[in-house]
Amino acid sequence: MDEYRLSLLAEKLTIASTNRILALLRAVFNFCKREGWLTKSPFEMGDPLISKADEVKRNRTLSRDEEERLLLTLSDDGPRGHIRPLVVASLDTGCRKSELLSLRWGDIDIEGGVITLQATNVKTLKSRQVPKLVCKMNLVF
Fold first, then answer.
1. What whole-number distance in Å separates Cα of residue 105 and Cα of residue 64?
2. Is the dihedral of CA 122, 124, 125, 127 positive or negative?
3. Could you count the other beta carbons within 10 Å of the beta carbon of residue 96?
4. Where are the alpha helices (DSSP H) in 35-105?
């Protein structure tokens, strides 16, 4: 398995892409083990093959120019105009699409300027609040 990991990296795949492929393989081997087809998974032998710590964290923010071009592409009268409010809300709050689509009116405190994201609707399964300074979108429907 380590040779396979090294061959993936030699093919110029990123560490993150290599880790995703190995995670899929690990899941397949674990399934085979649960079904009794294997007694031991190759991932249980030797050093760990998947290292999330080696992955490069993404921290990308659109420039003003990129944001303006994106919003121009999503003009109200264009073919993608229907997603403009969602993109604006995402840009203004930093929320993921699924987080915005799962919001209920009870999650929004207009007077306090805070949006509460429920734990069941966020990737980390921990509720969080989008504070007044970040939440600058106009809630007009």
1. 30
2. negative
3. 14
4. 64-73, 84-93, 97-101
Q: How is residue 24 written in tokens?
A: 């899929």
Owner of token pair 């710590």: 53
For 39-97, what is each residue's pLDDT tens digit?
998 888 877 777 776 776 677 788 889 999 998 888 878 788 889 889 988 888 888 89
Alpha-carbon distance of 45 to 28, in angstroms, equals: 16
**Tokens 């939440």 appear where?**
135
Contact 49, 22 (CB under 8 A): yes
Residue 30 CB burial class (10 angstroms; 0-12, 13-18, ≥19): middle
Q: Which amino acid is at 35?
A: E
Query: Token pair of 115, please?
Result: 């949006």
For the stretch 119-132, pLDDT in tens is 998 888 889 998 86
User: Is the distance from CB of 16 to CB of 55 less than 8 angstroms?
Assistant: yes
* Residue 114 DSSP label: E
